[in-house]
Amino acid sequence: MVGFTAFGIMLLAEEGKLSIDDDVRDHIPEIPDFGETVTIRNLMTHTSGYREFLNALSVSGRRLDEGDFIAREEIIALVQNQPELQNSPGAEWNYNNTAFALLTVVVERITGQSFPEWMAEYVFAPLGMDDSFVRPHRLYIISNSSMGYGPEEDGGFREILDLGGAMGAGGIYTTVDDLALWMGNLQTGDYGGMELIEQMTTRFILADGDTTSYGLGLFVDEFQGLQRIQHGGADAAHRSHFALYPELGVGVLVHSNYASFDGSIPRQITEAFLSDHLVQDESEEAESTEEVVAFDPESYDGETFDEYVGRYELEEMEGFILSFSRRGDSLFTQATGQQELQIHPTSDSTFELRVVEASVTFHRDDEGAVNSLTLHQNGEHLANRIEDDPWSPDLSEFVGRYFSAELETFYTLVVQDSGLVMQHRRLEDAELTPGGEDIFTAGFPIARVEFERNDEGQLTGFKADAGRTRDVWFAKQD
Questions:
Q1: Distance from C-alpha of 174 to C-alpha of 280, rounded to nearest angstrom
Q2: CATH superfamily of 2-50+85-275
Q3: Which CATH code of 2.60.120.260, 2.40.128.50, 1.50.10.10, 1.10.287.600 fits the domain covering 395-476?
Q4: Are 427 and 61 in contact (CB under 8 A)?
Q5: Are 52 and 445 in contact (CB under 8 A)?
Q6: What is the spatial distance between Cα 346 and Cα 310, in angstroms, rounded to a whole number?
Q7: pLDDT at residue 370, as a whole number
Q8: Mean pLDDT, the chain, as a whole number?
Q9: In this model, does residue 19 exceed pLDDT 60?
Q10: If you ran DSSP here, which 8-state letter would residue 258 be given?
């Protein structure tokens, strides 16, 4: 959990061993100078502009779902290979596991100890968290740990290995009792002091003046009228959720080792136990005044969902698109660079995602058309329907091999069954769907490709977007 890594960095800052406004290159000089200073604070607030390594390495063909190992040296190399920052430091919030992997390197170089050893001595032990460990690698055996598992497509279950290279961003094994101690210290500041806790729970302000819902390794927001300090976490199979409501001195902790765990359970627990203290926010009150059709999920057939099918772009994050599609009597959504998930109706216009704690509300305009939605996940995020210009390309023009020097990997594009298909030697084939001119949407790990041409109109390659990693260049091979 990134909050522990951030707490460790703040302890070192209190000792004067670093400043959170240090240039990252003061501690990891082999990281390139991109012309703008990336600070330790930028790492802890997810505003660095570095490539997100899980998304990027998935594009390169790493099968993280099959337990592929990632060394931290590879994460540094990934940053070294990127041609430029994805955004100016402090200008954009983009959740970034690369940042917290780099923070473990900072800790080790300052202290001379391994990150797991230092965290055990200076974070877990002083807090009394005797059953908490940083797993140094995915094959390290931790006594009494739970094995991750998930469903098989044909029935039954399969064992799922944790991500390699997650240390710093995750890789912590703990218990509910130990996390309660951590939660209590965020309330009291007995270890580290309240000034440190206040710094961690102060929302970061972007360069344009917008305030994020994130402090230093912790989300800081509201839930139905209550102040909340929280963070979720997910490995390949393990899931965790932590939420502290400091006004009440109450918290909610949920753990699972099941990949298809229902992510709405933490919210359900909160609403069940804290119902007397919860109030609807203004957006929920407004929605509650709208006419709601009598609803029975079992009575819905697939055609009911057709009016929601389409692509919606978040207002606050250009290029981040939620795509909705129907198969049979089920509705599915896929966010840019993420896997497709089924969503489940809770009314005639609201749906919940059960694998993650999120829900969606579709909105109708004055004429009854569905042209916008709100994504409820760590806040309220409005998205508007986008209509791509009609475009019927000659697919044979895009056939060929494309190479990314940055990720050192090839993709081959072929035409199969009248569709353009993207192939990689380690990944499943992905059909590309035409969008705007020279733009296609894909699936996972690549969500979107945009082709580029030279002055003569010849294709030179494409830029691939994979959610938190954007604009990776693939050059067309002659």
A1: 33
A2: DD-peptidase/beta-lactamase superfamily (3.40.710.10)
A3: 2.40.128.50
A4: yes
A5: no
A6: 20
A7: 92
A8: 89
A9: yes
A10: B
| Tokens matching residue 111 | 């202290």
Q: What is d(CA 245, CA 277) in angstroms, rounded to the nearest whole number?
A: 11
pTM reported for the whole predicted model: 0.84
Question: DSSP letters along 311-377, please?
Answer: EEEETTSTT-EEEEEEETTEEEEEETTS--EEEEESSSSEEEETTTTEEEEEEE-TTS-EEEEEEES
Look-up: residue for tokens 């067309």? 476
Closest CA to 57 of 38, 71, 40, 43: 71
DSSP 122: I
The residue among 137 and 165 whose pLDDT is bigger is: 137
CATH number of 289-386: 2.40.128.50
What residue ranges do the domains of the chain occupy?
2-50+85-275, 289-386, 395-476
For residue 434, the surrounding DSSP H or E stretch is strand 427-434
| pLDDT for res 453 | 96
Strands in 105-144 per DSSP E: 133-134
